[in-house]
Amino acid sequence: MRRREAGSRLRAPGRRVQVQGDLFHGRVPDGAVYVGRAAPGLPASPYANPFPVRAHGLPEALRLYREHLAAHPGLVAAAAVDLAGRDYACWCPPDRACHGDDLAAAVTARGRH
Question: Would you give the distance in Å from CA 25 to the centre of its chain?
């Protein structure tokens, strides 16, 4: 995780981009922060959603992730530093809801307080 000096103003997260390639040859676009689960060649991100869509369905997985973020403010604080001004990458298609968007929203909301 990148760290900045205390008191420096953090920028909002960039936009969500999709991991390129396939499950066995995934590549995070240059400059983006990976926010997904472990995959061959990609280590798990601390910002990965611990609630799989396959087990919970998309709406419930996203709801549980938002609760997870609310219960772990330190995770959101770390994401505020790591995602500042950077795109964030996940496997989700661009036209589908994604936990990365919820993470970015939590970071942005934190910056307003």
Answer: 20
